[in-house]
Amino acid sequence: MSRLKAIRGGKLNTAEFGSRMRGEGIFADQIRDLFRVSLKKVGLAKEGPELSTAHFRRPGGVQLDLL
Questions:
Q1: pTM over 0.90
Q2: Taking the domains of the chain in order of start, what are their residue ranges?
């Protein structure tokens, strides 16, 4: 519980928008660094393919009725 409090700035939970899934402090930095090293080990550190909506097309016809 003390590690969670250290990551959350002394609290067990933070309800502030944008901060719920982010930690701060040395333990959060260690977890981030371990995750990045693990990504490199398994070969996932590269960026994925560029995504495009160029080949998307709307389905034709009339919208189906709900049953």
A1: no
A2: 2-42
| H helix intervals, the chain | 2-7, 26-42
Q: Which residues neighbour 8 within 8 Å (Cβ) at sequence distance 6 or greater?
A: 14, 23, 24
pLDDT digits (tens, 9 = 90+) for 29-67: 999 999 999 999 998 878 878 889 888 877 777 777 887
Q: Which amino acid is at 33?
A: D
Distances in Å between the Cα of 20 and the Cα atoms of 1, 14, 37, 39 are 16, 6, 23, 23
Q: Mapped to the 3 state alphabet, what secondary structure does 39-50 carry?
A: HHHHCCCCCCCC
Spatial separation of the C-alpha atoms in residues 50 and 54, rounded to whole Å? 12
